[in-house]
Amino acid sequence: MGPGNTVAGFGEKRPGRGLINAGIYLLRPELLGRFPPRTPLSFETEVFPALTSGGACLKVQPVNAPFLDIGTPETLPQAESFIRQNLDQFL
C-alpha cells in the first residue's frame, strides 16, 4: 500500500505478508472501458494488475478482520463454520 491508501501494486496469491483483496469495488465506467467487453474478466489477474501498472489511482480501505480463502476445494467446506465462529466481526 502506498501513500494515502493507494494501491502500489497487485500480486495474486503470493507468499508472505500483504493485504488480502476482498470486499466491495467501486470503479468508474471509464476504467472498466479499458478492457474488452467479454466474460469472464478476472479482476485478480487482468483488471487490477493492468490498472495499477497503467498508473490508475486505486484506493484501499484496510480492515483488520478474519479471512478464509474459500477458493480451494480444501477450504470451501470450512466456510460455514468459519462464518458462524466470526459472525460478530462481520456485522
What is the topological layout?
Blueprint: H1 29-32, H2 43-53, H3 79-90
Structure report:
With 91 residues, this protein is an all-alpha fold. The chain has two domains: 1-60, no CATH class; 65-91, no CATH class. It is 30% helix and 0% strand. It contains three helices and no strands. The protein is globular and about 40 Å long.
**Mean pLDDT across all amino acids:** 83
The number of domains: 2
For the largest beta-sheet, the strand count, sense and barrel status come to: none
Strand proportion? under 5%
- Could you give the distance between the termini? 25 Å
Along the chain, the helix and strand elements come as: HHH
Helix content: 25-40%
With helices defined by DSSP (H or I, 4 residues minimum), what is the helix count?
A: 3
Please state the structural category.
Answer: mainly alpha
Number of strands: 0
Q: What gross morphology would you assign?
A: globular
Q: Compute the gyration radius: what is it?
A: 15 Å
Poorly predicted sequence stretches spanning 5 or more consecutive residues: none
What features would you highlight for this structure?
91 residues; mainly alpha; 2 domains; globular
Quick recap:
The protein has 91 residues and is mainly α. Helices cover 30% and strands 0% of the residues.
